[in-house]
Amino acid sequence: MSERVVDVDPASDSTASAGRDRGAATGPSRVGEFFAGERHLIWDTGVMSVPAAALSARALVKQFKRVRAVDGVDLTVGAGERVALLGPNGAGKTTTLMMLLGVITPDSGVVELVGRRLPAQRSAAMEQVGFAAGYLPLPERLRVREFLELFADLYGLADRRGAVAGGLARFRIEELGDAMGNELSSGQRTLVGIVKATLHNPPLLILDEPTASLDPDVAHRVRSGLEELCAEDGTALLVTSHNMQEVERLCSRVVFLAAGRVVADGSPDEVVAKFGSSDLEGVFLHLAEGGTEPITDARPVS
Amino acid sequence: MRAQRVRAVARRQVYVLKRAPQRWFDVIVWPVVDAILFGAIGVYFGRQHGVAATSAAFLLAGIVLFHVVFQAEIGLATGFLEETWSRNLLNLMVTPLTELEYGAGVALFGMARLAIGLTVVSVVAFALFAFNVTTLGVALLPLVAILLVVGWSVALIVIGLILRVGQGAEILTWGFIAFLLPLSGIFYPVSALPGAIQPISQALPTTHAFAAAHALVEGHALPWGQVALAAVGAVVLAVLSVWFLTRMLATFRRRGFISRHV
Fold first, then answer.
1. Taking CB atoms and an 8 Å limit, are A127 and B96 in contact across chains?
2. Peptide bond into A294 cis (omega under 30)
3. How far apart are CA A154 and CA B95, in angstroms?
């Protein structure tokens, strides 16, 4: 199947997509900029195209009883773009991620993953998305290799053994293949979780606090593996983290949430400048203390 | 529906059964215990009236067929429970796996489990009490099919309740079956139940399926009227259980109950 690249109307709503555009590795930082003049890759079948945005969410709202967890969040991640979703505890990050993944139904709003609209096209969308979280355990009664092979099947991979071997090698944990899930350290579990999430080389990888509670060495391996993956495959990344150094290393764009709303969206430098802080950690602390406006105090916040 | 994903779900259940010895209680131990218990009761009471063989056959046919409902229900419900116990639900929900594929995979494994459980109870009944369930003939097949549907339907209701109220509802995996056991007239005619309970019993598809089985044990032809009532009841229960599960799953997603399982 040959490929050809064509210009498309940026206003068109492409929902019939599959496959991925590995060439579009660098994504702009704004929705409008991204769609302007963006190219779609279309196969000769004429029915498969890859949309410009790996992820597009508009006006997401979620209310749990008296708490408005997410309040009108707009979020776009371009193909190959690396975005951090940041904010203090209770800001609505995980609820937003769960809505993006179709696990929680939003009260209102629209989610499209790789051109597939949720919830109607959830299954097709999830073939193009990987998810891992630092807090997810591995099932106790499975060996790592069995666990990964099961997920390779769930992702519909023809060569599940090859995919698992390749995934373990990518993160340099081949020796864990025969270990039982409950024998692993939290760092090893995280690495296996990320291998699981990337078995099918998804165009979009969503990670919820992937390095939480990991020692610096393992966290470094996780970050290096992710950088390698994104650089080689042009994988778009949406990651939540409380580690601002990690964010600055991994992501070209940060989106700050506070009380369920987007309060900042831009490159780390832009966001730091907007808030008048010395670094991202200063912005984080400012938001955690309830501030949403630029820091007026001249003292360094970090 | 993708066969590869259905097989993956079934394979996952095989790993669990292989590595969790306690799961063999449902598949091996309870069928043996039930066959010995009800066979012995049948022989004892039968001897009082000089009909030991008939009495034992009546109870053993009941327990063999009861294990169709039991194994079908337990297999499906505990298959889902395993995902909640191992906090694997979120992992599954973020894959392309659909609810139908998941159900089909667990049901596929449940069929294998059912075959093992039924074989065990039938072999024990034959070895210890000379009761051969196959002598009841192919007429058993529609009854087995009806009881299978009932077992799966009860499991879907249990899964729906677990999604809605959390793991506290897991006791119903065994609780609903415990209610069906006395109410379905498995070991006695419905007329033996207190009058106030009999209408409830008559409304259950299992009651009519077991009444048909008893007719076979007594050497009569299969009472198709009872089979039809049981089949209609099973279909109604199946439709209701799917509707209920769909509603509960929607509530689960709407109210963010995944947080209970991570």
1. yes
2. no
3. 7
Q: How many CB atoms lie within 10 A of CB B49?
A: 9
Count of H-run helices and E-run strands, chain B: 11, 0
Q: What residues are paired with A129 via a beta bridge?
A: A204
Structural contact between residues A76 and A51, judged by C-beta atoms closer than 8 angstroms: no
**CA-CA-CA-CA torsion for B56, B60, B63, B64, nearest 10 degrees?**
180
Structure tokens at B72: 């079908």
How close A159 gets to chain B, by Cα (Å)? 12
Question: Is the complex ipTM more than 0.85?
Answer: yes
**pLDDT tens digits along B105-124:** 999 999 998 899 889 989 99
- According to the model, what pLDDT value does residue A135 have? 85
- Give the pLDDT score at A43: 34
Query: Please, which residues have CB within 8 angstroms of residue A134's CB and are 6 or more apart in sequence?
Result: A186, A190, A193, A208, A209, A210, A211, A212, A213, A214
* Gyration radius from chain B CA atoms: 19
- For residue range A220-271, list pLDDT tens digits in order: 888 888 888 888 888 999 999 888 888 988 899 999 999 899 998 999 988 8
8 Å CB contact between A243 and A211:
yes
What is the Cα–Cα distance from A179 to B172, expressed in whole angstroms?
34
The rounded distance, in Å, linking the Cα atoms of B154 and A76 is 43
The pair of structure tokens assigned to B249 is 């799953």
State the pLDDT at residue A63: 95
Do the chains contact at B86 and A137, CB–CB below 8 Å?
A: yes
A64 touches chain B (CB under 8 A): yes
User: Residue B79 carries which side chain, given as an amino acid letter?
Assistant: G
Count Cα neighbours of A170 within 13 Å in the Cβ-side half-sphere: 28
A210 vs A215: CA distance, rounded Å: 12
Sign of CA pseudo-dihedral B84, B88, B94, B100: negative
List CB contacts (< 8 A) between A178 and chain B: none
